[in-house]
Design goal:
Nucleotidyltransferase, domain 5, 5-stranded mixed beta sheet, single chain, Arc Repressor Mutant, subunit A, 40% helix, alpha/beta
Length: 401
């Protein structure tokens, strides 16, 4: 209970841009003044929070404002995508201090590749000059499916050979730090919660558009992971009943109609992109950017491909909004910037038409508030979530005790 109450206090302070006094914390958290005072004393002693001046708010002595100490804690994030692996070092308020990108090595032995990632983390820490004792851990965001209990990536579709790779154990051995492993879509949802304000939506679906497409889920301000940590495997939602055959035996699934490689293949067939481009120019990110640029310049075929993509994604998103009764759909991921201009215009009216709750409440559609290219931020936020965010699981007794 003490850990939960401390997380409540930390989370309240984190969400208040101007900081909070002890009196305000007691009111917002519903805790006794003495309990709040004791928790704040421990947090001040540990350096996680600081006193940030006085504030007068009526009669009586001014109240002392408490804020997070940016240098009180740090976290490292690793975002693994089949095309690119990115790293970020964050301070306690979410400022990215170091950011590094490198091509993902899919040719090497996976265990050796992950060990090399650990060496990169060590190098980032040393070169940053931060106090290593203040680093809470390493968060890893990886394509699913994952075995959350063992910190293992199971068999990601676009990473051949990565079968049951023990990411957590290898990285812990390589870095000497605690390691948290989660799906990339879940990490993105965590980042959205972490970067949001106190007035952000408490119930939303995060549609992640990377090499694959998945969904993260937040209900009542808490990230939902499911029984094995694999919430959001939406690849076999049917987005176009008349679409191409899928390997699951049905037609028109997200996996074969909406993913970036499908859009690029359509663009090649339409002559928007070269049938076969030079290797250095034919990467998926470059191709998606070229498709988006062609649409922006008025190429009718490019416009049609992206418009059809928006219709299909809106249909898939409506399945989630109708099932879960959320108030917002957030789009993000490495390939979202290429789609944002067309999709943010087309999807809201489509989703309003397809959602059954519109007579009760609207469903907002927006792009992620996390900057493009900072997916490793979300990975680091997995560590921040574990430290700062109050979760009902903190209140559960260990079944072994």
């Amino acid at each position: 209970m003490g850990d939960y109450n401390q997380a409540v206090i930390l989370d309240s302070i984190r969400r208040a841009e101007e900081g909070l006094s002890r009196v305000e914390l007691a009111a917002s958290a519903g805790l006794a003044a003495q309990t709040v005072s004791n928790i704040c004393r421990r947090l001040l002693d540990s350096g996680l929070i600081v006193e940030a001046g006085k504030e007068a708010s009526g009669p009586g002595k001014p109240r002392t404002i408490l804020r997070l100490n940016p240098r009180g804690m740090y976290a490292v994030g690793i975002h693994i995508d089949p095309a690119l692996t990115s790293y970020a070092l964050l301070d306690a308020v979410g400022t990215v201090l170091v950011s590094v990108d490198e091509a993902t090595d899919l040719a090497g032995d996976p265990a050796e590749v992950v060990a090399a990632m650990g060496a990169t983390v060590r190098k980032i820490i040393v070169e940053s000059g931060v106090d290593e004792q203040r680093i809470a851990g390493v968060g890893v965001a990886t394509p699913g499916p994952v075995d959350a209990a063992s910190g293992t990536v199971v068999d990601p579709p676009h990473m051949p050979g990565w079968t049951r790779v023990p990411l957590r154990d290898i990285l812990h051995e390589a870095t000497g730090l605690p390691v948290v492993v989660d799906k990339d879509v879940t990490a993105s949802a965590v980042a959205e919660v972490w970067a949001g304000s106190a007035n952000s939506a408490r119930n939303f679906v995060f549609v992640y558009i990377g090499t694959g497409i998945g969904a993260g889920l937040v209900l009542n301000d808490e990230v939902v992971r499911g029984s094995s940590g694999n919430v959001g495997e939406i690849g076999h939602i049917i987005a176009d009943p008349d679409g191409p055959d899928c390997d699951c035996g049905r037609r028109g699934c997200i996996k074969v109609t909406c993913m970036p490689e499908t859009l690029v293949a359509q663009a090649r067939a339409a002559g928007i992109l070269p049938a076969v481009g030079p290797p250095e120019d034919s990467s998926l990110p470059n191709d998606m950017a070229a498709l988006a640029q062609a649409a922006a310049e008025g190429n009718a075929s490019a416009v049609e491909i992206l418009a059809q993509s928006a219709i299909r994604l809106a249909g898939a998103a409506s399945v989630l909004t109708n099932l879960l009764d959320v108030e917002r759909v957030v789009f993000g991921g490495p390939f979202w910037p290429a789609l944002a201009a067309t999709h943010l215009k087309a999807i809201p009216p489509l989703l309003e038409h397809l959602s059954v709750t519109t007579s009760v409440h609207s469903v907002d559609v927006m792009g992620t508030i996390v900057s493009s290219g900072e997916e490793a931020f979300g990975a680091a936020c997995l560590v921040m979530e574990k430290t700062f965010s109050p979760s009902a699981t903190r209140l559960l007794l260990d079944s072994k005790n």
